[in-house]
Amino acid sequence: MRFSGALWIGGMPAILVTMALALSGPAGAQAGAPLFVADQEACFGRVYDRAHLANHPNQQVTSLHIFRYLGERPEAEDWRASERDEAIKEFRETGYANVQAFVTFRGRPGHFHNWLGCYKKAKEGTNYFCSIECDGGSFDLKRGSAGTVLLNNNGFRLYVCGEEEEEVDFSPGKDDKVFRLEAKAAAICRAEERKAMPIRPGKPLRERFQESELFCFGRDYDAAHLAKHPQQKVASIRVGRLNPEAERRDPDQKWPYDVKLSVALTVKAAPSSRALTYVCNPREASWECTAEDVPSSCDSHIIHLARGGDDDILLINRKEGLPIDAPCQAKTTNDDHRQPTRSDDRTFRLVRMPIKACR
Fold it and tell me: For residues 18 and 1, what is the distance between their CA atoms, to the nearest angstrom?
């Protein structure tokens, strides 16, 4: 073949020299590049269009994203300034990476998610095995072509946030076994994270309250409100942090871990007050609070506190976490599958009150 009028270099047309250099450069190297780098976040994902789903009627997944992150969002309740450096150090020492999976399904509303830990496979330096603790399932990741990864789904558990948290086992099924995911900007996966785990606007509780601060929030419901909400059992409720000095914290843990709150309430059917002490720890969008000193024969009581508008806070009682029907509720066979709150006592918007109102 003759390249008329072309520039020649060392007996070869310049265009061929350029193509050879391009193929031996970064693009060619990417095919064998590591999936994760110590100090960089990584996002791989794919959104399947109607044409693809029509050609794969047995595929249930409509979108799938895997996010290797180096810390929580700054607006999250459990954000820590040292997270990024700790994640980089751990990866360099052990090769361990934290990832999040975000999945949507055909015919099932909601944005499902979970966290997994990934390790390099010993004999396959660029491949990773990612799993969830306590037999929560796993998947394998390996480099596909340049700019893509292959996810081999071994089956793993996913959750969706909402008024009632839903769980689903993401099994390989007939056509949900292998997924080719494309490299994306980290911002794409952060957007999926916000969909799966929305955080209410406003200042985080960890910033709103001081480490040594006492506080009291509550609400009294009048007859008119209770008449409009006949399924609500709680007539008044108080949430107070009354003795910060008594909070026993691990020396390595800092504010706002192990915050102790006193929760007291009265119900319409009984004039006497019922109270429990809860120990709270930060999660992404809220503080998760577990009742302290509950007998082993009783079901665990878990509630969440979240930021509300202005100076209000929200108490969220998704799964019978308050001692409404009785101070001790019969223990279920599996704490992870506690019954959703059946009465109209799921969410309370509480206002700041004088400390003495919680004593």
Answer: 17
